[in-house]
Amino acid sequence: MNILTFDIEDWWAYEYYKLGNKVDWLPRLNDYLERILDILEVHGYKATFFILGEMARCAPDVVRKIDRAGHHIGSHSNSHTFLYKFDYAGAEEDTRVGIDSIEQLIGRKITAYRAPAFSISDENKYIFEILHKYGIEIDSSVFPANRSFGGFNNFQTDRPAIVEYNGIRIKEYPIPMVTLCGKSVAYSGGGYFRLFPYGMIRSFVREHDYVMTYFHMKDFDNKQERRYKGWEREPAAIRYFKTYYGLKGSFGKFQKLVKDFEFISLQEADNLFDWQKQRIINI
Ligand SMILES: [Zn+2]
After folding, report:
1. Which residues does the UniProt record annotate as the domain NodB homology (predicted)?
2. 79, 99 in Cβ contact below 8 A?
3. 224 Cα: distance to centroid of ligand 1 (angstroms)
4. DSSP 141
5. Domains of the chain: which residue ranges?
């Protein structure tokens, strides 16, 4: 199964992206969002949109538009603060407000979650307890490799599994990996999707029977202003490369991908999945 997901966030809110005029980001997000919603409609696909609580409050029309088109909506935290920056109480508050803001707006219970920048790791796995407390049943926050802002490299699988922690259970849909030069890397979203040529991505998708994509409007926006600056212990040259490489061709690659393969939302995938047969991972 190929699962289509998008993370919807106000990237201007992060120090690194504070460029140009604040009023600029929403029309740019809207531009790609509209195009994507049209493409999904043409193909008859539903997708999952993980949305920030902040978006529900500052741009409610964006959330309503996604909801009206019948897509599955999940939480992407409240403020996009990387979870390892919080203590338990801070992480709980951010999770609670993030979920609540979207539920208030769309009038339905939110049961799916993705952490900002996949920032759940072995050190802050108590987040699963918090997610369970606020009604999350499905999570897609595990990036089972090393990563700049998170990564759960000792999570034992890159396939859907049941996470068991402190007596609670959550269905986990991790980001799938490929091994290149002995290193585990992703291919189905973010910088990796921008980096790899389309032919390579197509063969990775063909080879795998579980594909979890993760796209951001920012990853398609070639007109965005560029900043050459280090961030969170990363030198400027590396950060620049990771943030902007491949922006020019990425929307074209996305269009090819949804033409070449069939996609479903996380909700549809979850309805099809036989959870009785899946692995339980104790963390
Ligand atoms: Zn995000």
Report:
1. 17-283
2. no
3. 17
4. -
5. 2-282
Q: Could you read off the pLDDT of 125-162 as tens digits, one per residue?
A: 999 999 999 999 999 999 998 777 678 888 889 999 99
Alpha carbon of 116 to ligand 1 centroid (Å): 5
Letter for the amino acid at 281?
A: I
Q: What's the CA-to-centroid distance between 266 and ligand 1, angstroms? A: 17
Q: Give the pLDDT band (50/70/90) at residue 239.
A: confident
13 CA to centre of ligand 1 in angstroms? 11
Q: Nearest 5 degrees, angle CA 156-CA 160-CA 166?
A: 65
As given in the structure block, the two tokens for residue 240 are 């620049």
Read off the pLDDT of residues 87-100 as tens digits, 9 standing for 90 and up: 999 999 999 999 99
**What is the distance in A from the centroid of ligand 1 to the CA of 85?**
15
Between the CA of 8 and the centroid of ligand 1 the distance, in Å, is: 7
What spacing in Å lies between the alpha carbon of 277 and ligand 1's midpoint?
Answer: 31
Question: Is the sign of the CA dihedral 270, 188, 143, 243 positive or negative?
Answer: negative
